[in-house]
Amino acid sequence: MKWTLYRYLLQELLPSFLLGVVGFTFILLTGRILQLTELFVNKGIPLIFILKLLYLLLPSFLVLTIPMATLLSVLLTFNRLCSDNEITAFKASGVSLYQMTPPALVLALGTTLITTALSLYALPLANEGSRSLLYQMASSNAHAGVRERVFNDDFEGLVIYVERVTPRTFEWENVFISDSRNAAETHTIIARHGMVLSDPQRLIVTLRLKDGDIHKLGDQPSAYQKIDFNNYDLRLNLKTRWKDKPTAEKHPADMSLGELAQAVQALRSKNADAKIQLVKIHEKFSVPLACLVLGIIGIPLGIQSRAGRSGKSLGFVWSIGVLLIYYLLTSAGTSLAERGVVLLELGMWAANGIFLCLGIYLLVKAANESPVLLLVWLDKGIEILRQRWSRPHKPKEWKPKK
């Protein structure tokens, strides 16, 4: 009896979980897909680069969508069981609510372990790989990021304005460049024509400009020079920016747990601020734990919500509302922790602590069949709004004029 019940509940949980992962991931990817499609169609970026970048973006999205799908799956499953009176049938057969929770907890623990593995191992590698791939795209197709009649600042220390880009050859017309890489001397370059030459093997990008002049301005107003040129090459060596960085200078999101610990020790030895690195360390564990926390709170919400009996759509609305509140608390806590307003541990773990306590409280109330006033009021409000929206409007009776 017990294992039959567990298999039955898992058969209900897994399809909705997989559907939630695919749905939420697709929603998050939609914005990036539109941007990457523009690069492929209008800028000539090879399709293989686009597909690789989408693949490398998946871990960063799955870390967020797996907890969301866990909540959705648990809430909808128990919501359906309650609406079909199966919860009542189980209780009449001597099965308590606590005996129905192990499959949901197994799912939540499994997704917690998967998300932890993604956060500790896959996510740093994917972030570093995506940055490296973006470098390759920038070095081999530097023209892709330059848009017409827009001040482009993709290259550090340079602001580039191009009036027109030829679609096929990607040659530039009427180019304006502000070069502030040297703090002691600012260069302003104006050219009629220009083009991008890239050397991916040497990691060098060359901006070849034609028919223009260079305006040099030093610290003193009198230190002004103007140089006319027919051809001028402005070289950007991206190797020093992307490939030869030591581990301590990597972006914190690209670091593994060991690298973050080493970075924290190095910064503390210099009496420097290490809050960002510490936040990333806590995120590697607090974000995966959201699977377990949201899985627990989804059980009583699915049972206590009477509005769920009206259909799965309102159960989905409940999921979105809970997720919105949870991630708002998480974002606020992270921001306050990074600025030092609250203790780091408090800011990073407050949302999990609040929702875990709330989930246990609601689970006990649901097991004792004791209603929660707040949920009752919310159910009544949702039901009133649903009835008003679904109420058919009677057409006015036509009366002949006398």
Polypeptide structure, described:
It contains eleven helices and five strands. The longest helix has 41 residues. It has 402 residues and is α+β, with helices and mostly antiparallel strands. It has a five-stranded antiparallel β-sheet with strand order 1-2-3-4-5. 61% of the residues lie in helices and 14% in strands. About 4% of the residues have low confidence. It has a domain of 98 residues.
SSE blueprint:
Layout: H1 2-42, H2 47-83, H3 86-92, H4 97-100, H5 102-140, E1 158-165, E2 172-179, E3 186-199, E4 204-217, E5 224-237, H6 239-242, H7 257-269, H8 275-304, H9 312-338, H10 344-367, H11 373-390
Antiparallel strand pairs: 1-2, 2-3, 3-4, 4-5
Low-confidence stretches: 239-248, 307-311
The beta-strand count equals 5
Number of helices: 11
Q: Structural class of the helix and strand makeup? A: alpha+beta
Mean pLDDT: 81
What fraction of the residues are assigned to beta strands by DSSP?
5-15%
Largest sheet: 5 strands, antiparallel
Q: What form results from the Cα inertia axes? A: elongated
Walk across the major sheet and give the strand order. 1-2-3-4-5
> Residue share in helices?
55-70%
Order of helices and strands: HHHHHEEEEEHHHHHH
C-alpha Rg (nearest Å): 29 Å
Distance separating the two termini: 76 Å
